[in-house]
TrEMBL record:
This is IS200/IS605 family transposase. It comes from the Bacteria. Residues 18-138 form the Transposase IS200-like domain. SMART domains: Y1_Tnp. It comes from Streptomyces rubiginosohelvolus. The lineage of its organism: Bacteria, Bacillati, Actinomycetota, Actinomycetes, Kitasatosporales. Gene3D superfamilies: Transposase IS200-like. InterPro entries: Transposase_17, Transposase_17_sf. PANTHER family: TRANSPOSASE FOR INSERTION SEQUENCE ELEMENT IS200.
Length: 142
């Protein structure tokens, strides 16, 4: 009999682990300046996909508005989200500032592209109430 996770394509496996970890990330531009247009968002997505690939992370969804971007990532347990986020923001900032210098200077962003803060939320799987019920049902009689 094969393990249950073999029938679920979202569950990835490693040598000693089976996992299904997703995070919703939101990055906001410095001072919430409206810098992004469609072309710049597309380039930002390309850069972030490359960074994710380097971490063995799958960028499942990407979208944004003038002053922020949303990412849905599927990541392995060996990846510290803070390190992934630092790399995503740092690399994208360097490339976007180099490639869109005129646009960024006109808006007055200076040398900082992203706000220092970010949102990271875990997502996917059943609600916490279902998990609690499952764990409680696993109690052995004493």
């Amino acid at each position: 009999m094969s393990p249950r996770w073999e029938s679920n394509p979202d569950i990835r496996t490693g040598r000693h682990v089976a996992y299904n970890l997703h995070a919703h990330l939101v990055f906001v531009t410095k001072y919430r300046r409206g810098i992004f247009d469609d072309a710049m968002l597309k380039r930002c997505e390309e850069i972030m996909r490359e960074v994710c690939a380097g971490f063995d992370v799958e960028l499942r969804e990407f979208n944004g508005e003038q002053d922020h971007v949303h990412l849905l990532v599927h990541y392995p347990p060996k990846v510290a989200l803070s390190k992934l986020i630092n790399s995503l923001k740092g690399v994208s900032s360097r490339y976007l500032r180099a490639e869109y210098t005129g646009r960024i200077n006109r808006i007055g962003m200076g040398s900082v592209f992203w706000s220092r803060s970010y949102f990271a939320g875990s997502c996917g799987g059943p609600p916490l109430t279902v998990i609690r019920q499952y764990i409680e049902s696993q109690k052995r009689p004493v």
